Amino acid sequence: MRTPGAASRRRKRARFMVELPLLVWMVLVWGALWRDFAIGNLVFGFLISLGVVSAFRLPPVELSGRFNVWRAALFAARFVWDIAVASFQVLGTALVKGPKVRSAVVGVGLRSREDLMITTVSHVLTLIPGSFTVEVDRPNATLYLHVLDVNTREEAEDFRRKVRATEARLIRVMGTREELASLEAENGAEAGAKRGRTA
């Protein structure tokens, strides 16, 4: 005979497993904010994260069920490269244009409507010098980013293409199977259109 206490413990264990990815992410953010990944600091961050999750009943993070290690390694290498290139670009812009530089807030519609994907894309773009997310329109899966040195519509469109390319790389890393299939179909359609123009 099943007791109410046993059922309650099973529900708590299930809820903890669902919330575990969020807890891990919060601990990593805690370590990054303090610039200290020592075991003691991470344990303290885990306890704080556990308290926050228990007190505020945050929505669970739903994972896609897939993770491509090779694509993740490629993404990490590209991410480091983008940070290095953008750092030199920002430095050059500051030296050449100085206070005359113009910026813009650019809205970018994303393919994915998953909270984890939208959040990850937003954080990745904010960590790359020259842009940061100022607002997230969650119902419409749209990011609004402040972008340095944008003077024309063409430059804004070029930035949108870069954002969607970053999202595409993340979809290949950890997007849902439906998102991956949609991305491959989109790439196939674009390739067909290019062949049609060159024929």
Share of helix among residues? 55-70%
Task: Specify the overall morphology.
Answer: globular
The chain-level mean pLDDT equals 84
Strand arrangement, major sheet: 1-3-2
How many beta-strand segments?
3
End-to-end gap: 73 Å
Instruction: Profile the largest sheet.
Output: 3 strands, antiparallel
Cα radius of gyration in angstroms: 21 Å
Count of DSSP helices? 6
How big a fraction of the residues is strand? 5-15%
Structural class: mainly alpha
Query: Unreliable segments (pLDDT under 50, ≥5 consecutive)?
Result: none
Instruction: State the order of secondary-structure elements, H for helix, E for strand.
Output: HHHEHEEHH
Would you give an account of this structure?
This protein is mainly alpha-helical. Helix content is 67%, strand content 11%. The chain has six helices and three strands. The protein has helices at 4-34, 39-56, 69-96, 115-127, 153-174, 177-198; strands at residues 103-109, 131-137, 142-148. The chain has a three-stranded antiparallel sheet, with helices on one face. A hairpin with a 4-residue loop joins strand 2 (131-137) and strand 3 (142-148). Helix 1 (4-34) packs across helix 2, helix 3 (69-96) runs antiparallel to helix 5 and helix 4 crosses helix 5. The protein starts with a helix and ends with a helix.
